Amino acid sequence: MLFRLLAIPNLNFYVNASLARHTRFEIGGAARVLADASTETALIETLESIKDAGWRHAMIGGGTNLIVDDAGFDGAIVRYIARGIEIADTPQSDGVTVRVDAGAVLQDLVDATISHGLRGLETMTGIPGWVGGAIYGNAGAYGHSIEERVVSVRLFDGREIREIGNMACEFRYRESVFKRNKDWIVLSAELRLDRADPLELRAAADGILKIRNAKYPPTMRCAGSIFKNLLLADLPESARANVPAEVVREGKVPSAYFLEQAGAKGMSNGAIQVADYHANLIYNSGGGSARELREVIGELKKRVREKFGIELEEEVQYIGGG
Asked: Are 91 and 190 in the same domain?
């Protein structure tokens, strides 16, 4: 199979590649192969080669929300690394069109749109990761999500390349159709943004970044918030009754509220720590393991389940293991 990969143009691959180097937690073992495809053709040929060889495979992006098993991944990890960002020269009547590849760094897209005076993504400044992952998980912050700006998504569904509109993406809070169809791969997206003053946008983004960096320092080995926030309307009545009104924001209750009540702050397991200032922030202080991390996550879910009768859901994704 490796000889077949060598013959694919626009593909770089690495054997026995450490995955810890490609995740924010800096945790996890090696992949049998890590393959980086920079064109759609290279990606499809790579996936066909892996399938023909009968290897396991998984797609990842920037590794922001990944927990890789300590034993690594006995197969091929594939990344689509095309990073193009194209901004239409002529504004549309209902906004400006931006086309962006899935491998583009989300912050690069945010900065490009701000510099062109385009409103719509500035609240996402400081969110790490790539655009494909942002669409996959419907990333967002400060009351806005990327779904608000997606017009269409170009994807490979395992058989062919096709394009679907916003509605077909089935976006919900931190959810999309791509999470339920693991063989669908985001290739690029078309976004629609509005004209605005770039200085005002930059000021807003800088203010958000200052707050974000104080909570999630860029050097911290973490995935941001571990658990999704909860929709108030979906909580059992017994749990809703215990939530102060001032905690609810846009119909959501921060998971941190329940975690704090369950004594999460400052918890530790080896090198894995829960921040003493934020109950929904787990980080690797150095030398931590996936086993320790999963134990902390499991313990936190257990405490909240027993105390409030609700099930927390992780924002992170798992790679490897049984």
From this structure: yes
For residue 208, is it within any domain? no
Q: In the sheet where 73-80 sits, what is the strand order?
A: 11-18, 30-37, 73-80, 56-59
Structural domain total, the chain: 3
Residue 123: inside a domain:
yes
3-state secondary structure 84-126: CEEECCCCECCEEEEEEECCCEHHHHHHHHHHCCEECCHHHCC
Give the residue from 162, 177, 202 where a domain finishes: 202
> pLDDT tens digits for the chain (322 residues)?
788 999 999 999 999 999 999 999 999 999 999 999 999 999 999 999 999 999 999 999 999 999 999 999 999 999 999 999 999 866 556 689 999 999 999 999 999 999 999 999 999 999 999 999 999 999 998 889 999 999 999 999 999 999 999 999 999 999 999 999 989 999 999 999 999 999 999 999 999 999 999 989 989 999 989 999 998 988 988 888 888 989 898 888 999 999 999 999 999 999 999 999 999 999 999 999 999 999 999 999 999 999 999 999 999 999 997 5
3-state secondary structure of 264: coil
Parallel, antiparallel or unpaired: strands 161-165 and 150-156: antiparallel
Do 239 and 171 share a structural domain? no
Beta-strand pair 317-319/66-68: parallel
74, part of any domain: yes
Of the residues 48, 80, 112, which one is the last residue of a structural domain?
A: 80
Runs of H (alpha helix) within the chain: 2-6, 40-53, 106-115, 131-136, 177-180, 198-215, 237-240, 255-261, 290-308
Annotated catalytic residues are 174, 225, 315
- 3 state SS of 56: strand
For residue 269, give its domain range: 217-315
Q: Are residues 238 and 266 both part of a single domain?
A: yes
CATH number at residue 99: 3.30.465.10
Q: How far apart are CA 151 and CA 139, in angstroms?
A: 15
